[in-house]
Amino acid sequence: MATPNFYPSSLSGSSEFIEERTLALMKRTCGSVLVGLLFSSAALSMVTARTGWPYWELTSALLLFYLVPAVYAYRYIQKKPEDRQPEHDRRHLTYMSVAIISAWNLVAIDILPTLDSQTRLIAVSIFIVVVYAHCLPFSLFPRQGMVLMAFNLLPLSVQLTMLGDESVIAFGLCGIALLFMEFGTYTWLYRKDMSAFRARKARVVAGEPDMSEEGFKRRLVYSIHSNSTPAVMMQAVAAFFLVVTLGAEQTEGMLWSWLLAYLSVQTLRTAGFIAHVDNPKRLRLRDWRILFGLGIVVNQLSWYALLVLFHDIMTGFSLGVVSGMFIVVAVISTVGITSDRLLLYLNSAMCLVPPVLILFSKEEVWSMVSLGMLASISMLIIVENIHRSAVQSQRGKLLQQLTEFRAKEMKVLNGELTDARERLTEVNSNLEQQIEERTQELNYQATHDMLTGLGNRYYFSRMVSDALQEQEEESGGFAVYLLDLDRFKEINDGLGHLAGDEVLKAIAYRLSEACSDEVICARWGGDEFVILERREVSARDAEAFAIELVNDLKRPIELESGPVSLGASVGVALCPEHGKTAEQLLEHADIAVYRAKSYKTGVSVYNEQWGYEAVERLQLVQALGHAIEHDQINIAMQPFVSVESGELTGFEALARWRDTVRDVEISPGTFIPLAEESGLMPAMGRNILRKACETLMRETPDSDLRVAVNISVMQLRQQDFIDDVATILASVGMPASRLELELTESVFAGDVMHIRQVLGALRDMGVKISIDDFGTGYSSISYLRDFPLDTLKIDQSFVAGLRNGGEGLFSSIVSLAHGLKLSVIVEGVESRNDLDKVLELGGEEIQGFFFSRPIDSRKLGEWLQSHSQHPFTMRRRHLSMAVDNQDKFRLKDS
After folding, report:
1. What mean pLDDT is predicted for residues 491-507?
2. Cβ neighbourhood burial of 568 (10 Å; 0-12, 13-18, 19+)
3. pTM above 0.70, yes or no
4. Cys-Cys crosslink for 829: which of 648, 768, 841, 848, Cβ 3.0 to 4.6 Å?
């Protein structure tokens, strides 16, 4: 995992321009093969001429293998683009290069030990040229190129260090240093090639250049790092040339050691260049310049070291060569750094030192000083001009980049404007038609319901306003019908909203069948529809029309899940009898709908008295909310009696409310539906449940008596209902097994899955679940089987039916409950005859006025003192009721 951290990210593999890069590789291979063949032939000829090497004929024949990659590359170039396989052909070319390098390594292993030092130096020098011929074409694919470079240099370096000649050990290690320095060469070449491809293909649009002073400084620092690699490489070549020139038997090892040190310095400088190119933000600009300046100083000190260490052997021709080479180095070292004045002056000043030292070594010192000062001033003037030219060049490039960026932006904008103009022309050609179509569509959407296709509230209100205007002008009349679907919410919640939408569409279709020019139908909202009959009608005719409509809507509606049936309630308001504004008519029709729900026909015509009652109903809702908030809802307890033992088994908690403002008792049949309609039921139910549990634990803390509390569907839908039950039980210290929750059959028409989960959780706590008033609502045997139930309560209407021969139906219900493993409670036993029938037909518990009327919770203690120790005697024949002095109820044998 260390390799990715060492290897420069700028040389990472990329599939960008893969075909173009492979084609360029093949073209360069053709030229590099010829160079490699030429220098390989020269090296073999030189070695053979000097040593008489016996295998030169065979090796010369093997040189013809160079033609194989050349021919392969040429054939690739001649192929059609669609026939080329870049990955495949590049891999084969790499294999060929490896084969040639392997052959060279074998030849070097055989030849190098037999060569004298001078011949070996010449041969290695030529071989380095051959190495570059092998590897430089692969700078387009730097990973493969570096592998080939390592395969070339490492065997040669190892062999030189192991020849046994101490003078060439450093020479061999120079090959390893050169290998690492080549990372910089490959980085520079690869970036140049990729920039050329991008410029040629225009695939990458340069972003807007940073024209700020800080941005320009960053550009200059980036420029010196990215363009200094050639100077480093040329200085390395100059250093090698100097070592060869100064080479002498007594100093050869020391010279190669200096070259190894110099190449190591250049390798570190190259690493710094690569680091900056990879991530310029790694360091601050000042830190990058300091590191670059240190590299210049160390580089020049390396040259000083050469002059100091080997000055004694520099005489005559060699001294002239060294002087000239220092001048060349001075020129080369400025490449890439001309845009930075400080670094350029630092480098130039340090480059003057070696020639000045050489000149000072002459006898005419003052003449040389004058000449040196003149040369220094001239050089500084030249350097300053070079720097200014370089900075201006950078600014020019920056302005050119900005110009190109703006030009490309303008080109894009011009293209977009042209396209927009063409599109605008096309849009204008059919704009009038679209506006007309859209206007019609918007008018339709503004006046119609999108689900049913009927008119909407706005449309209907407008029609009523028109009818009112006609009524004023012609003194006529009309009727407004408000229709509210019954049990639609149960279907919508139980079967889903999609099924609810299908029901609404079916209802709308049936209503539209009843509509005509004089009868306008619309959807008012939710499950409410409105009808306007634009003609004068009597109350009797309007009621008859509404009854016919309700009967038609009761027909089953076919859905994918099966047929469903639902009813409707219709309220009628007549104009002008019941109002002369749209608001009054609709308000009075709404009041009539509320009344219609309690009528057998489901239809009612507005009565003025109902308006007052509606106000009373609103006041009653407010009073009920106040009573719930101030804990003024009380409870009464009605006992359950065991059929087998006659013992008391528990109580049902019944809600009671006395309106303290008007000082009247409000019937549960009035305020409980009112609480459900107004959303007050969850809060009221919570209070009743708490009071029932508190009363039971206060009066019978140590008994097994249970209390049954009625729970509405609305409470079961509350997310925190289970937590409320658990909290109340814990607060009064009551076991869950002593609580029974009574539900009506309406739960089967709600959100069945959610309610089943809630009941299951309650039953897991130990709470008993009972179905109340069985047979009067939405009955389903499958629901009785699937729901977690304990008890079934037979409605008192079935007990009343026993007086008219309803024994068979009653017995069937008992058998059904026992078949489902449910216990049976019979409610509504009011007389001895009722009790006789119930005892004969079955059931586990009985409840009714025959045993006790509901007992105020505050008087329950007194009642228990009279009855808890004296169980009711159950006999199935000749039963009678007696009341003792303590108002104690007891069934006795007559």
Report:
1. 85
2. buried
3. no
4. 848
